[in-house]
Design a protein that fits this description.
- The protein has 388 residues and is an alpha+beta fold.
- It has a four-stranded antiparallel beta sheet with strand order 1-2-4-3, with no helix packed on it. It has a three-stranded antiparallel beta sheet with strand order 5-6-7.
- The radius of gyration is 30 Å and the shape is elongated.
- The relative contact order is 0.07.
Length: 388
Amino acid sequence: MSTPKSANPGTVRAHPRFSLIGPNLVGLECDHDERRERLLKIIPGVRWDDPRHIWTFPHRRDVLERILAVFRTDWRILDRDVGESFGFYKSSKEALLPSAPATSPPVSILEDVRRELVIRNYSPKTTKTYLSCVGSLEHFVRPKSISSLTPDEIRSYLLYQIEKRKMSAGTISQIINALRFAFIEVLKRPFELGDIERPRRGRKLPVVLSLEEVRSLLEGLGNLKHRVMLMLVYSAGLRVGEVVRLRPSDIDSDRKTITIRSGKGKKDRYSLLSELVLEVLRQYWKAYKPQKWLFEGNIPGEPYSIRSAEKVFENAAQKAGIMKPVSIHSLRHSFATHLLEQGTDIRFIQELLGHSSVRTTEIYTHVSRRQIENLRSPIEQIMQPKSK
C-alpha cells in the first residue's frame, strides 16, 4: 500500500468526509496525518485507493465506528445520505438518531488482550488482573461492545465500581490502566475519560515489628523449613513470592549474597545473605536436600505455595502473641525500617528492596524511631515540676 500524501493537496479538512462509492463500499477523504494513517491501516477492510486518492472500507457499522474513533468524533459528522445508509436516520423528517442496538452478541476482546499482554511480556499476575478488569467491563455494558463505548459510559462504569462496589483508589487506578491498554493497544482507538481524574490514594504507613517481636516470632518456630524461610524474608527484605521462588543456585555463600530473579517488574537484584542465616541454611540443606527449588511444597518439583508461606507467618505471629495487624510482608517492612534506624543510606535500602524510585523507600522514614527518639515533646517542658 502506498502512503497517501494528502486527500486534496492544498486544502485543510477539519473533519473526515465520507461518501458512498458503491453498494458495499464507502470512501473516506481526510488530511494527511501519519499517526491517524497508521491506525487506519490496521482496521480490517480499510484500504488506500491511489487512483481515487481516498481511503475505502466495507459498508459495515463496526468498521465505521472504529474509523470515527480514530478521528475522535462520532456519527454526527456524517452527510445525510451516508448516515441514512448506516441507519442513523429514521426518516428524512427526523433528526439524527442512533440506530437500534444490534441483537447479535458483542464480540469479546479478551483473547486479543491476552495475546497482546503475552507478546509484550507482561507478568502473569498483571495479565490476570487486566483480563479481569476488561471482562468486568464487557459484562457491565452488555449487549453493547466495548469498542462503541463513549467517555460518559466508561465514567458510569467507574462510578459504579466506586459507589456500589466500594473499590479502593488503587483498584480503580488498576482498572483505568487495564482499559487504557485494551483501547489503545488492542482496539487501536483513543482512550478518553473526559475530565475524569485518577482517584487519590490515601497514604497508609506500613506496620513494622520491633526487633524483640521479630526475635520472638522466629524463635517460636520449631519447624526448620519454616524458620529458615521467615529468616530469609526478614534478613534480606524479600517479598513472599520471591522467597518461594528461590533456587539453591541463588544462594552465594562466598559473596554472602542472594540473587532475586524476576522480582516485581521482572527485575533481578541482589540482597544480603547474613552469616547467621547461612549457618541455618546449611542445617536445612543437610536435612531437606532441596533440588529444583530451595523450598519445595508437597508435590515434588513444585515450589512452596505463597498461601502456605503466609499461613506459616500467621501461625508464628499468633504463637508469639503479636497483636498488630501484620502479614508476612511486615517482615520486609521491618527489614527496611531497622536498616534505616541503624543509619544505612536510604538509596542502598532502595537497591536491596528493588524499588524503582527512592520515593517509595522514603515511606520508611515515617515509621523509623531514629529521629523521633531524639526529640522531646513540648509537654515535658510545660509539665515539669517547679523547682523549690
